[in-house]
């Protein structure tokens, strides 16, 4: 998808000169991009190569009042954000249904489970029950590390939390039971690579 | 696929006596419901029975201005509708990725192709290229008839239109190459039944 700015110009990504993050020794810095930006780029790449069709769902908004200043335009004048009842991303990869939630944390040792809502857990449970593939994609921003965590692992941590255990998933669990995604040149976040490993392991 | 009703009985489709198309005297009127309402009910039914997880995507809205009258609430004060770049519905059915656009028309003899946008055609093309299942679900409201039309058939009509042929798909084509969905008691619009036939035919 090409992004057109209000001035009608086509979006050309700016090349920032040198990444000046203090101790980072990686070639492919994220240059202040949000995880959402990174995933959009990845998904556009997958789409252009016919590797997968994955889109971020629009944020659900409850529209209350709309003005029509002219025949052809509508301006929403009162609206409210609604809580999403599903995950953010879904789509198709080799005929299979893919569904995931993407989150970033500045924590260095664990991922806080409060980032995930119970209705999203229910949604992923339903996906898996219908033979879809559900997972969590986490960026540990400070560490510049990315992981895919299968829904099954997320679920067991979630259930432990409900039994009174810790309210976060420790980095160790991501290292042991998740699938690390190594940032590369382009697309920076190639999650299908990690996904392939994940699906392979779950099936075998 | 067998549908089980809350009473535990196996679902047996009602045999409507004689199909009298023109003035069909059908028992299960749609009682003024929109196609969207009907599909929501169907999708909730499928979800509750673990038959499929299909959701309508939120309408994409570009938010420009947000007020925060209090700490916990946000009111959107200026926003605009954006054109959807994909179809309205997607999800998972028996592990497979399903994607469709649902439209209703009051026309009695054809479905106007202006109801479909070129970016939606592109999206469905991408879905099929990635082995997903894409189709069009049409309600002929005046006739009270519903059809699933495989993307491949839609595509050929679309290409004909671009070559100067008619700008609509005639009812005959739906009857010949589509899969009719007979409204029933509950869920009224059981499109998985028609989908199963469609997938079976495409695969064989």
Automatic annotation (TrEMBL), chains A, B:
Cofactor(s) essential for the protein: Mg(2+)
Keyword check for Cytoplasm: yes
UniProt-annotated binding residues for Mg(2+): 86, 88, 101, 120
Underlying gene: recU
Region described as Disordered: 1-30
Pfam hit, one: RecU
Top-rank taxon, per record: Bacteria
Protein name: Holliday junction resolvase RecU
Any one GO BP annotation for this protein: DNA recombination
